[in-house]
Fold:
Amino acid sequence: MLHWNQRAVPLVVSVLVGLGLVTVVSVASGKDDPAKVPTEKKDHNFPPTAWDYAQLVEPILGVPPKVDLGEAIEMPTFIDGEQVHGLFEDCDNPSRLGRKNCMSGSVVQRYEGQTADGTPLPDVVWVAFGRNASGFNIGILGSVQMIGYHTVTGATAFFESSDRIEPWAYLDEETQRLKGKMPWIDDPEEFNQAYKTPRTVQCVSCHQNDPFIHNSFIDAARMPETGRPVVPVVRTRDMEFETELPYYVIGGEDWDMRTIYIEGNRCVGCHRIGMGTLNLFMQAGWNPHEEMPPGRPGKYQHDFEELMDCWTNSPEKTPDCHWIIPPGASTPGQIVGEDYPFKANFNTPRLASEMVNEDLQVAGKLRDLESELEKTEQALRDGSISSEEAAEQKKALEYWISVLRDVQSSKDSKESFSSDSKTSHLDKATQGADRKGHTFGKGSQ
Structure:
């Protein structure tokens, strides 16, 4: 349990009030601190370690790739058509992953599947994504994700790294892009240090229509041989959802695989649409009518409005609109109803919007706190504050930065939103902090 330096408390109160921060506390459970609110977790069907998961998926997808970030292709960031390096408030192709990010240096690579002995698996593709987050989070370089996908059966595997990839990865000083070599399965202990399974995080809350997300940020990375996007473009539908391309997650058999479907709607004529992902991008500034359909933007506006009406009102209350699930390992594509057993809140419009809004709020407050920390460090270098004052301020700021990161980490599961509860993560945190005697964002008490 953290023991506060009493002189630091007024400082952090004033800083957080000034930043307009709604009070948050760590949601990790802790019996010694009543302000810590335990987050309920739902177990999934994943093995305990990434190495065990690699063994589980090997008969279907082969082995995961050896990821060399230096050999991957950078996702270039452009301003007025010119490639730039660094962190920017705006750019031509923001990532829109939770907010309008413009940070260069992320990389992506595509690999053909293969067995452990090197035999090619032409129906399998792996994609590794190195996300540069160094401009947003002090002390965090970024992360590495791997997705394996069988293009015929739809079998998919998701691997996620920890936020501490510094033992293996680094930023190139000149280009500010990620480089380094990640551990492989030939060293199980180190592989498990670098990677983890999805656990309670339903990756399909974003990767809804197929394993791969596309936007102008991701598709800026191009294969040098063909000029095509590095991340594969999957046409998932041949106009009939019963026979469309399968998609299922190995270990995620109880994940919510639903998307909405309207017969004859042209927006879902070539692919499924994950409305939660669409909502995420739109709240980060994306206008679908400016880009879709390709070559004829805005032509399907009526069809799009039909989908939005169905999403907002729910398929259960919208005539001719249905929840469907794609073909899986042993199930056909089909319409599902109220009795679908794997409902998740990212497929509930109101809760999905709340989750996106809270993600944006927490991310914004985290950036504000990190900016204050940088100012403190600069003031110490300038000699405008003493080392003792700087130490107290840094201790307080670093504590609240860690708290917000805990909130972000816990929110990744998306499962801690209860459809029966009106209380959000930040509301729960506020209640916990009030019990502890600190109230920020509403004036100190």
